Amino acid sequence: MAKGSVRKKGKKWYYRFYVEDQSGNLVQKEYAGTESKSETEKMLRKAMEDYESKKFIAKVDNITVAELLDIWAEEELKTGTLSNGTVENYLGTIRVIKKHPIADRKLKNVTSEHLQQFLDLLSFGGIFPDGKERKGYSKDYIRSFSAVLQQSFRFAVFPKQYITFNPMQYIKLHYKTEDVDLFSDDETEEGIQPISHKDYEKLIAYLEKENPQAILPIQISYYAGLRIGEVCGLTWQDINLDEQCLTIKRSIRYDGSKHKYIIGPTKRKKVRIVDFGDTLTEILKKARKEQLKNRMQYGELYHHNYYKEVTDKNRVYYEYYNLDGTQEVPNDYNELSFVCLRPDGCLELPSTLGTVCRTVAKRLDEFEGFHFHQLRHTYTSNLLANGAAPKDVQELLGHSDVSTTMNVYAHSTRKAKRESARLLDKVAGND
What we know:
The chain has helices at residues 37-54, 65-76, 84-97, 112-124, 139-157, 197-210, 215-224, 228-232, 278-298, 350-363, 373-385, 390-397, 402-409, 414-421, 423-427; strands at 4-9, 12-20, 26-32, 126-127, 133-134, 239-240, 245-248, 251-255, 260-264, 272-275, 303-312, 315-324, 333-336. By secondary structure, it is α+β, with helices and mostly antiparallel strands.
């Protein structure tokens, strides 16, 4: 049985125990617990039980692909060299791989053929190990699997020296081509279709009756083109109503492995400034007044929103919390004045907005397939259709390249394409 102990550093307790490394030597592992000694001791007992049952660090000759992935994640993904978003993406990919039989194969017995078959199954779809038939994954998702396997097997070669060569070096990624029904009567749709202003007003009217708290983030995205995580991460300090601009510097997402909401950087890790007009100015002024009114009505039951800085080895991230006025605020909590709030002061979270959008797609006529990101497409299409310079739109959206803006959005409406095509009538003198 592994030996373990707990110790206190600052306000937090830590637990540590000895495990056997690949050479058979005992090495000590230490992990952060909580501010409660008893809870930390429970975490220690659970960790030691897991270790004894799984023998997490196996002998070299018996290491499986799943164990390699765990070792690689533990040693390489927490060094601070990758963004938090990339780390979480890789960890999610690992969880999927470990559900496939290839994860149980001994590392020394895995061939390029095994890996090629696995990646082809993910690309083209088929009968999965659970007996269910599934479609193939997207190109971006496949690339995540390839990156995880490439890096972990390279890690197994050096510095670990578990194997002598990397079987992933012989892998070629194959992607499924889209099948087209040559005899279908249906018109094809290119990309995500924008929402007409009439439909937008219809959406707002529906939400006023069903989910009023979701209106403000939808309005902001419609008039400023923010992503769902960016809308939720917006604070009043980020908004300058006099200059009519807002600063986008953070985003909020749910971390499934930690079961917490995390405040992190934007998708491109860049701060950008988005200008807006009089319509959104009035919307924001009205929302601010309403929130101050709610705060007075709820009194001490009104919730306040906080973030907490957490350091995991060399990686820093920020957890989201909310407390009402009757609860004691820990010393390491820092308050944030979010814009998109529920009446009781709690943050309107991305998952809640996602649920609202799915409900809209099911219940509201002509909104089949609706999702929050469609508002961002609409914002872009409206700007481009009304003569905005593509370079300006790129900067407002925070795209890395103007080609992304044009390729994804510029041809998104049927109306715009028809008007462009009819320009030739003017050349021919038929207009």
